[in-house]
Each structure stands twice: as structure tokens, then as C-alpha cells.
Amino acid sequence: MSISSLPLSYCTNVHPGVTVAEVIDGLQKYTAPVQQSLGAPIAAGLWLAQPVIAELQRDPQRLRQLREVLQLSKLVTYTLNAFPYGNFHSERVKEQVYLPDWTDPARLDYTIACARVLAQLLPEGVEGSLSTVPLGFKSLCQRPDFLQQSIAQLIRFAKAMDELHDDTGQVLRLAIEPEPLCVLETTPETIAFFTQLRDAADASGDRQAVDRHIGVCYDVCHQSVEFEDVAASIRELGDHDIRINKVHITCAIELRQPTPGSLAELARFVEPRYLHQTFARSSSGQVLSYLDLDKAICEQPPAGFRDAETWRVHFHVPVDAESLGQLGTTRADLRKALLQVQLLNYAPHLEVETYTWDVLPSGEKPTLVDGITGELKATQLLLANLRLTRDGLSVV
């Protein structure tokens, strides 16, 4: 039983960055000051978009510069977010964030390139992880051969990571991130896919590489939005030997017993950049889904939503927030998930990933440095309390 002893990571996809200069600016303007404000070491969970990776490949001096900035700021990096391929801060991201999908050679090439960059940033003796898209977005991936093509590409990735291990001695693990309304959405879908992946790897003689290098990124709020029992979900992944290479420490919006007032408050979170898949559960346990949070569902909810007991919205909100005015959050599930994670016989990487600070409703909110610092402080306290619980001490 353990929780990672590495410095807690926070994902830099919250900062714009489609050039190396912009990535460095984000580290100097936000990440380093957050560490200073926190008064404890943190890790920079870098998001390096495809244009950044291409720039690093063209000019090795830029990679040396990035490494030097991290060293001067006393920041470590052991994980990359290789999910958003393009500009994650454009006016409209929505479902485009899932492109290219895992059937596209561009996704494979980008992810291998990310791994090679991470191999040059890793602290000595530390494994690396890279989170990636859940194969693709369901409505965009209807071809009958989609899973087979994705599996073929993932096996190529695993073999490339074996070669990288032979060259460098470093282990780089892919973390496929299930997400609402994606090809890999629920825990049962994820388990079924890994069965197919392993069968294919057995047939091609690549099972060892796949088992070593491919697992999941468990984004806690994603499974919460699906109304899954997160502790049971993590146990089921373990029962099927699916390794959780990375945990995204996240919270989503929860709305219990919707009222006109709380729906009006929820409407303030409607925004044009990111996709906010919205789910509802009735008193009988039926779960309904709605593509994206919009004014229509807040003002005139469909019958199933109107009568539902609870709504949950894929809108990442600060992980230290128990509530947001009349709205709640899924923070209780975060505690349950981390309690279960510490029962694993290995320690997944841990990363806070609230990328929505710029699109939170206007009004009183802290500066970005103060907001992220508050999230990390609350998470460190939560992890410390989990350790005390594990060691048999009472926790207030």
C-alpha cells in the first residue's frame, strides 16, 4: 500500500503554450511562483502541444533551454499531458480535442516524440508517464475497423517504448484516459478494450511490451460524472491487471435536486471553449447523458433531466471546492478514489488537472497562482490524511 512520494504534479495545460517560449513563460510566470507560494517542491506536468514538440525536435538547443529553466526553478517533470494535440486555448476546442484519434499516424508519431522528450527531462531513476486520448470521441469514430486500427497503433507505440528503454534504460508508460462520451468511457468499456488489446498483442508476440508500457490515466471526475462507484472502478481495473499509470486529481460540478435557482447558477458555467458533457441520474438509478452544457438544458431541461435526482457536469472545478454557491462538487469521490489508490501495490503518478480557470464564471476568484496554490495545499493535506489513515492513526 502506498501513495506516490514524488512531488505532487500540476498540469500546465491550464496555461497557453504553442511555442517553447510560451511554455517557458508559463513556467516562469505561474509554475515557479506556485511552488514558491506553496513552500514545498512540486512537479511541472508539462503539456507540450504538437507545434512545441516539433520545435524541440528541430532545435535541440530549445530542449536544453527548457531543461535549464526547469532546473533553475527547481521543478521536476515526470509526466506529460499528451492529450491535446493542438491549441488547447483556442476560441473553440470542444470535440476537436480528441483529434487526431488513435487510428491516425499523427497521434502515434506525436506520442512517441513526447516520450522521447520526456526521457530527456526525467529525474534519474524515475519512470515517466504520458496521458492520452481515450482512443477518440465516440460520434467521430464510427468506422467498423476503428478499434483494430487503434490497437495496431498502440502496439507500435509499446514496441517503440521498448526500444527507447533499450537505448536509455528508462521506462515510459502510456496512460489512456477514459472520458465521458468517448470510445473508452466507462470502466467496463475500458476493461473490454484491454482484453482485445492483449489478445492482439499475444497474437503478434508483443504482450510483454504492451503490459509494460500501456495502462490508464484515471481521471477521478470523469468516472464520477458517469455516476460510477470510483472505489469499485479502481478495484475492477486492478482485478483485471490494468495498471493505473497516472491519476488526475479532479472534481466536477454536481447538482442535487435541481431547482430554477440552481439551474440559473449552473447556466453561468456555459462557455464556448471546452466540451462539458452533462449526465443525470434518476431516483431509480437510470443515467442519461447530454452532449454539452448549454443554455437550453439549463432553461428547459428534457423530461429525464428535469425529474432527475442528481446532475453531474464534466466541468473541472477547483479541487479544494466542496461547493460553488448552490452547486456542489464531486470532491467526496476524490477522497474515495485516493483511498482506493493507496491500496494498490504500486504508486501511480498524481497530478492536479484543473484546466478551466480561465473559463470559470466571472466574479470573485483568486489569481491563478493563488488558486492553484490553494488546490495543491488542499490536495497535500488530503494525501497526508490518507497516509495517517493507512498507518492506523485517527484523522479529524
Explain what you see:
The protein has about 400 residues and is of the alpha/beta class. The chain has one domain (about 10-250, about 330-370): Alpha-Beta Barrel (TIM Barrel). Helices cover about 45% and strands about 15% of the residues. It contains 14 helices and 14 strands. The protein has helices spanning about 20-40, 50-60, 60-70, 105-120, 145-170, 185-205, 205-215, 220-225, 230-240, 260-265, 295-300, 305, 330-340, 370-390; strands at about 10, 45, 80, 130, 170-175, 215-220, 245-250, 250-255, 280, 285-290, 310-315, 325, 325-330, 350. Strands 1-2-3-4-5-6-7-14 form an 8-stranded parallel β-barrel, surrounded by 6 helices.
Concise account of the structure shown:
The protein is of the alpha/beta class. Helices cover 43% and strands 16% of the residues. The chain has 14 helices and 14 strands.
Label this structure with key terms.
396 residues; alpha/beta; TIM Barrel; eight-stranded parallel barrel; six-stranded antiparallel beta sheet; 43% helix; 16% strand
Note poorly predicted spans. none
Number of strands: 14
Indicate the radius of gyration in whole angstroms. Answer: 20 Å
Helix % is: 40-55%
Amount of beta strand: 15-25%
CATH top level is: Alpha Beta
SSE class: alpha/beta
Major sheet: arrangement of strands: 1-2-3-4-5-6-7-14
Shape: globular
* Assembly level: single chain
Series of H and E elements = EHEHHEHEHEHHEHHEEHEEHHEEEHEH
Number of helices: 14
Number of domains: 1
In CATH terms, what is the fold-level topology? TIM Barrel
Overall pLDDT, averaged? 96
The major β-sheet equals: 8 strands, parallel, barrel
Termini separation comes to 22 Å
CATH architecture label name: Alpha-Beta Barrel
